[in-house]
Amino acid sequence: MARNWTDQDGRRYPLAVPADTNAGAGGSVGAYLLHRIKPHLPPWLGVAGAGLAGVLGHERWANSAGAGVGLTLASVALTGTTWWVGRTTGKQRRLHSAITVAAGSAWLTAACLAGPTTGPVDDLYLMGGPGVALSWNVRMVMRRNEGAGEGSDADKGLLEKVGLARAQIGTAKVEPNRVTAPVGLDAGTQTNEDMSKALSHIASALDLPTSAVRYTPDPGSARRGELVIVPEDMLAEVVEWEGPSNLGGSIADPLVIGRYDDGAPLLLWLPGDPEEGRNSTHLLIAGGTGSGKGDAALNLLTEILSRRDVIVWFSDPKAFQDFAPLRPGLDWGEEGGAGTEVMVEAFQAVIPDRTRWLGAHGYRQWVPEAAQQQNSPERTCRDDGRPCGCPGMPFLVGWFEEAANTLRALGDDAFTGIAQEARSAGAALIVSLQRPSYDQMSTSTRASLPSVIALGCDARDEGFSLPDTVLAAGAHPGEWGNRRPGYCYCVSPGIPEDRYPSPGRTWRFTGRAVSVMELLATWSQRNGAKADPVTAGSAARIAGQLYTGRTGPDADQTALSVVEDDDMDNGPHVDPEDADIDPEAELPEPEQGDDTPIFGQESGRKPSPEEARRLLDDALAEFEDEGRMIVGPKDFTDWCDRNSLSRSWVSKRLKEAAQEGRLEPTSSTGRWRIVPALTVA
């Protein structure tokens, strides 16, 4: 039996299905006909009852003046009561009911006083009674077969309650746990905005949560749209993640990260599709503490890593607390700080190189064919038109988890350049943070992130996550807060716009998922894409040895040597830096800056230009060996103390090194990127 619910006017959504639609199939034809006729019998039983009451009343009250007065008053009272009770229904039903009661009570009064067979009384009964009964039968049939634009009394009563009395609801399309009905508002007096404002009142009238009622305006009309009602929340049940949906597929295939409230899969695309007319996109994942943002990220990352033609650069200042099992499958992973700063610079640097490669091979945007070896004459970078055989270029995903940390360190526009330019380079930027407010992320960056997974948040932050049009259509992540982890709205190219205000829920990750994630990371190491020479070369040019690319599962891992305190007695008792000093030699002559500084002056000596260049080259090489490719004056604090140099001297020398090509300025003021020594050479 189909699940259904009933509004205050008695209308059911979806229409009730008889518990036994085949009743009588194994019995007589009469039983079957009786089963089909039963819904239409009540009006006829009412007519028969009125006739019987007239006969019995005449036997008792014939020619009684007192009975005449009483019956007349009762008739008027009953008619008035019917009209008063019908004020909450539609106008047609109210008028029809009052006329039926008035006609029936008037005939009954005449029959009781004059007799059911006197004069025209019996003729009125024989002609009017069937007419009234048939009128209600016709009304019942019409209620189930309403024409588009002819809303039922129940619909009009519902809309009248919410201040839209003149609006009309057309024929409803009934699907499993979803009812969609076209709405036509009154021309000249009502707009789609009025309907959007009334959604919470409609949900109240139907006794449903606010998120269960949505309205999608017609782009070609200011007063037409579709009202969507989902009577049952199918997201209440927690469903655990069981593994990727399309292992070995392409990143261009849909990523399945959960399901909608009507049971449909929650899909997302990152690359564009020129045949479908879908643009590539960047993604914002936003949600407050406890909203399930970590599970949403795991759903998306596992889907990405299960594809054969994509590489991922991932930054997580929380030291991969949630993502540790997947870390081996990443092409590049950093835990925040200086490494993330280098990753941002490298991501920005690879964009023009990747764009140039795609253009040279005839791609206006990245498609799966670009990830394969270029053996087609139509996809060649050679001037003679012969196949070039260039290695393919996999799709690139740059993911910055807990991005508020990175934005505080690099500035609110750290991702602006990437967000505005990376889509044409076959790359997607994913930014995850709790509150994407404009004091954390620049408006330019936010405007360049067209897709969003909006989880529960503070009601005041809804406008930071979702477009105003989606909020007006009924989406309200602030209603959940952190009470419903995993509930989300998804706005992205490729998703039908009427799905934007539909809530979904991501799969839940538990401890049982860890072993599957580890297997997925191993599969990605062995079968996933490796960075193409263009991307790897650009990254190495910026990051030096900090970028190693994805290693295989059997690669040798360099172990860090740790010296225990108990072994210190067996080692040298002289600092290695002082090993070549002759303890008997005379001390050198004092140099400028070696004396005690005067108050207000900076300590530290000032070396000669030749020594300064050598010292800075040694310092930059040391930083490069450590993988610290982004530096500034504050990074030289310990180095200055160790070499007795002034900090003001370092600032001036950094500018000279930039002029010589050893350093390049970054998007952050006062920060410099070390150009690897081999690149300079």
From TrEMBL:
Record-annotated FtsK domain positions: 263-464
Keywords: ATP-binding, Nucleotide-binding
InterPro entries per record: FtsK/SpoIIIE/SftA (IPR050206), FtsK_dom (IPR002543), P-loop_NTPase (IPR027417)
Region (Disordered): 565-610
Gene3D superfamilies attached to this UniProt entry: P-loop containing nucleotide triphosphate hydrolases
UniProt-recorded Gene Ontology molecular function terms: ATP binding; DNA binding
Binding-site list for ATP: 287-294
Transmembrane segments: none
Biased composition (Acidic residues): 577-594
PANTHER family for this protein: DNA TRANSLOCASE FTSK, SPORULATION PROTEIN RELATED
Name of the featured protein: Sporulation protein SsgA
Organism, as annotated: Streptomyces malaysiensis subsp. samsunensis
